[in-house]
Automatic annotation (TrEMBL):
Domain of life of the native organism: Eukaryota
Compositionally biased tracts (Basic residues): 231-241
Organismal lineage: Eukaryota, Fungi, Dikarya, Ascomycota, Saccharomycotina
Pfam families: PHD (PF00628)
Residues in the signal sequence: none
Name the record gives this protein: KLTH0D10626p
Segments for region (Disordered): 218-242
Chain ranges of the PHD-type domain: 23-73
Native organism: Lachancea thermotolerans (strain ATCC 56472 / CBS 6340 / NRRL Y-8284) (Yeast)
GO molecular function: zinc ion binding
Keywords from the UniProt entry: Metal-binding, Nucleus, Zinc, Zinc-finger
InterPro entries assigned to the protein according to its UniProt record, in alphabetical order: Spp1/CFP1, Zinc_finger_PHD-type_CS, Znf_FYVE_PHD, Znf_PHD, Znf_PHD-finger, Znf_RING/FYVE/PHD
Cellular compartments annotated: Nucleus
Length: 334
């Protein structure tokens, strides 16, 4: 287990304020006030940049964040596996004043910043009394241009076949990363996607029930009204919120068809087949929206986790390749 930074307080599992009942986050255990926060990929808690001593300008450079507690093995996957994670950062644009991540196969976030960097470089060279064009010409003449252009695009080469059989297959760390990614792809993500489909089907059923219970009834009333009262009814319709039952069910189970459910409804009943039938239900307020937001957030988090695992796999593979070349180098020297 690692050691917490001096500025980080002891871990607390408290999720709500004991006085106000509000949900609390971060190492400070305070409610969300709109301040910039980052989500931890280990424990799924949210943390203020200011509390973590991270400048807000680094916001776009975070690739995969792990809080101090996960990095020490107190929370998150490292608590049980022993493999303590580290926060991964995107490479910063080379222009000093820019804090955006580099574009693919580049040291800059954009072509404009690449030009700006080179212009600044030329300006510094010329300020020292040198001819910038002459300096660049000499650099190109003294370098292998074709080799220079390929740099950074080829990565670490794979050892020749036969020198390192089972190089990747025999590595426990690589197998663990592959296992984590495979579990997300084959188990966790499909399960959440299935839950989302179930929620969408159930919400559609509730809407159908409400249509049968109230929309049809209001249309019948409007149709039977005299022309004398039609204007008054229209004004009333605009100002009155349409009736609808809450519809919450703890298991989101469609108990019967909407056409079978609607005739059994009675306004005096609170529940029918465990479906909440309250017209104004503060207990389950916006239950569908909250659940959908939660499930979609989980899917986004899983996609981020897959990206992080793919990067960690690539890093580990490169480490293994380099180990082989180091061994080869030692044997040649011997």
């Amino acid at each position: 287990m690692g050691v917490l930074p001096e500025w980080c307080p002891t871990y607390s599992s408290r999720k709500k304020d004991p006085v106000t009942g509000e949900e609390v986050f971060c190492i400070c255990k305070k409610p969300d006030s709109g301040e910039l926060m980052v989500g931890c990929d280990g424990c799924d808690d949210w943390f203020h940049f200011s509390c973590l001593k991270i400048p807000q300008k680094f916001n776009e450079l975070v690739f995969s964040f792990f809080c101090p507690y996960c990095q020490c093995g107190i929370t998150g996957p490292g608590a049980s596996s022993g493999n303590l994670p580290k926060t991964l950062w995107r490479r910063k644009c080379r222009l000093p004043e820019c804090y955006k991540p580099c574009a693919e196969n580049s040291k800059y976030c954009s072509e404009d910043h690449a030009v700006s960097y080179m212009c600044n470089l030329i300006g510094r060279v010329e300020s020292k009394g040198f001819d910038a064009q002459d300096v660049l010409r000499q650099m190109l003449q003294n370098s292998d241009l074709e080799k220079f252009q390929k740099m950074g695009h080829e990565g670490v080469p794979t050892p020749p076949e036969g020198l390192a059989p089972g190089l990747f297959e025999g590595d426990a760390r690589l197998r663990d990363l592959e296992s984590q990614a495979d579990k997300i792809r084959t188990l966790t993500r499909p399960e959440i996607e299935q839950q989302l489909k179930k929620l969408e089907a159930y919400v559609a059923w509730v809407k159908r029930v409400n249509h049968l219970l109230f929309t049809s009834a209001s249309e019948d009333q409007d149709g039977g009204s005299s022309s004398k009262n039609s204007r008054a009814l229209k004004r009333k319709k605009k100002s009155t919120k349409p009736k609808s039952i809450c519809g919450y069910h703890p298991e989101l189970r469609i108990v019967c068809s909407a056409e079978e459910f609607a005739p059994q409804y009675n306004e005096s009943e609170i529940e029918l087949y465990s479906v909440c039938c309250k017209l104004r239900c503060p207990r389950h307020l916006d239950w569908a929206g909250i659940q959908e937001t939660s499930l979609r957030f989980q899917l986004e988090t899983l996609e981020s986790s897959l990206e992080r695992l793919a990067l960690l796999q690539k890093i580990r593979e490169d480490q293994l390749k380099m180990q082989v070349y180091k061994e080869l180098s030692k044997s040649k020297q011997a």
